[in-house]
Design brief:
single chain; about 130 residues; mainly alpha; 5 helices; about 75% helix; about 0% strand; elongated
């Protein structure tokens, strides 16, 4: 059975989105865990600041996840990324990689070409390691 190209591209897009969301969720979990393990946040003075920090983390991560599912966003959401924001600054490389995958997914390059390029890259790495 041969699947139509649109269906294959839809499955590929779904997989890329799922992997991106899993990566972001893992980063969120790690940052919140780090916040709770950092002794600087303990004490009465920083209890409210920690809550505010975690709220900000969740807000930014939720925004990033929304962007994965709606890359063009609504007119209110389409704004330039603030690279001074610690969330985006720390993940600039991951965001660039995800943007490249989405550009490829949106038809700039055929999926077969992308997958062939990746498999060639993996073969070259395997040959270097051997």
């Amino acid at each position: 059975m041969r699947w139509p190209a649109k269906r294959v591209e839809g499955v590929y897009a779904s997989i890329v989105r799922s992997e991106a969301v899993q990566s972001i969720e893992g980063q969120r979990r790690d940052m919140i865990a780090a916040c709770y393990t950092n002794p600087n946040w303990d004490g009465k003075d920083n209890a409210e600041k920690r809550k505010e920090y975690i709220r900000d983390i969740n807000k930014h991560f939720n925004s990033a996840i929304t962007r994965i599912y709606y890359p063009k966003g609504t007119p209110e959401e389409t704004q330039e990324i603030d690279w001074d924001n610690p969330f985006f600054a720390a993940h600039k490389r991951e965001i660039a990689r995800t943007n490249e995958l989405f550009r490829n997914m949106q038809g700039e390059r055929p999926i077969g070409e992308i997958l062939a390029e990746r498999s060639n890259g993996h073969r070259e790495i395997d040959q270097l390691e051997a």
